[in-house]
Design a protein that fits this description.
707 residues, alpha/beta, ten-stranded mixed sheet, five-stranded antiparallel sheet, 44% helix, flat
Amino acid sequence: MSQRPARRTRSGARHLAIALAHWAGGHTVSNEELLRRIVKARAEAHQEALEEHRRLVLKAHKKATKLQRIAEEDGGLTPAAKAQLKAAVKEAERHTTALRALGEFEVPSLDPGQVRHRRRRIAAARCTVLAAPAAGIATLSVTTTWWAAPAAAALGMVSAWARGPKPYDLTVRPVPADLIAETPMVIPPAPHAAVPAPVPGLLVPPVPATAPAAQGTAPAEGTEHHLVLALSKALAACRVIPRGTQVTLLAAPEVTPERWTAVVRLPDDNGATVDDVVAARKNLGGELGLDRARLHVEQVAGADDKTLRVSGFTTDPFAEPVLCTADMLGGVDVWEQGIPVAVDAFGRLLFLRLKDVSILLGGSSRSGKGAALRLIIAGCLLDSRVRLHLADGKHPGQNRWKGLTASYVWDPDKRAKQLAKRLEALVAEMGVRATRLAELGVESLAERPDLVGTEGLTLEVVVIDEVSAFTLDTKNGKKITQHLIALSARGLAFGIVLVLATQLSTAGVLDRLVTANLIWRWCMYATGADESNTILGKGMAGRGYSAHLLNPEQRGTGLLLREGRVSTVRSLWLDGNDMEAVQDMVRALRAPAPGPSAPIPAAPAPPASGSSTPEAAVADWSVLEGWLNTVPAPAPSAPAGAVQRARALDFIRSAGPRGIKRAAVADAVGVPATTVGGWLKEWSDMGVVEALGSPPHTRYAATDGRQ
């Protein structure tokens, strides 16, 4: 039976409108194609950045090489050329660091919102294309051609009648083959994500990995909705948010057999923040069917105080200690990479970088401070740029490191006096280092990482175990406290780092001016909230961060305050064969370096007749000649210090056994006399001065009026 023309026209018009909307909304383009196009654009931008940095590195190297060649030919550079050489070397280092940071391109884990944004841009462009003819017809009808609009309407009706009841096949175009070939590393998203198996022991059921809900919109019905309701009811029961309000789910929950994690935002207009949730964590865990140890709450980095990450674990994430192997500490870089010291609730390693970081470590007796301190000491000793000064207030607690550190203070009768002298020397050293950095035009070592570990700028790490044994000493306690105040306030800028450990017996152990300048505060189990506050700071227990809530059986578990945030961590465990291996590594690294050979000291020549001054000793110049020939020439891109050091060796070679004053060497190579003095001391220790037949206190190590 034939249909009526009007019904056929309406049906055709509906199908035409649906087809146009499908095209205009960008639905002809698949999510996979959009994802691949985004990844391709980022890969191209990454490659362009690499090429640009390589070009700039090459340009800086060429300029530095040219200036160094000019210096060799002319015997030096003008001050302006020296500044240009320094700038070129620094520019090359900066772009080389940028290249290392960029590394290889990795396919990012894209937020689905980025795909939606790209689709909206396509839709906006296509809607503009559709609107252009309509605007033209309307303009013609109003201005000159009155029949343009009726003609367009008639044409549309004819097209709709011709289409009739047959719908369009709304398809998605295939991903172009060339795009697939250019992005082979992108895995197409699965059309339907499988719902994970139920996680035992959790009141909140697991959630499928669906697209994240937009902020301010209610989540879809199902397990996500159940999660939002469970968290909202639990927070309302704990009086964190008002009853009847709900949290907002900001991303699809992460679900594994071991845990679930949800990023949520607290409702507005009620004053609730992350600190309120942390303070109510004990009761919140009960409402969710979890104990305190299996519920983890933290603020999302970079977000506001209402955005938090809530995680529930099937078992206590800190129940089992994590071992630190000798391999983990091999080749450690305490300045940039850091020392592996702990793991968080998610099993991520935490590194302690000594760059602008000092640490206060506290806890009750047998809480695990020694395990953390052991890692810090071992890591420092395995970096040749570090000179470690260890003061043991509970000898023989750290006796295993005796003989491996630059200094070791332990004698109960003398330790306070010895530590006071050591700290006094370091305070004086700050002034020397400040002068040297001022000459270099920098304020702190953080601005010039290449200076770390150079002559006179080694990292001086002071570890004081059980600091109360020193600061509460009746004779030297006040002096030690004053030195600690000075070092904590200014020492980090000059590479002098404090690591203090205490048992939290009283708040008077450390002056407030000391604790206020210690960047990391790590508190193990404490017997009460007041003891916890002596490490973490006043009022922290009231905000829900108190170490007396930790499990005392889990040694090494503690609260770490850094960068204004508190997290629960557990220190790694280093012991047994790994401890012996680490000590062997330290002995191999810290053993005194033998000289180039074992020369027999030359007998001094008899004094000349009629003269009261002995002649210069006869030196075995071949020994030094062979040693100097083994010194590699600096690369064109080497720092200026390496070039100057090599030139200083050449001047010493030309001076011969009679020697040369350090001020003359300093003038020749363009560095301060104190720097040359540091080089000469090192070469004296390596046997170079003895090879010249001159004792260390004369000629090369001598000082004159020009410091």
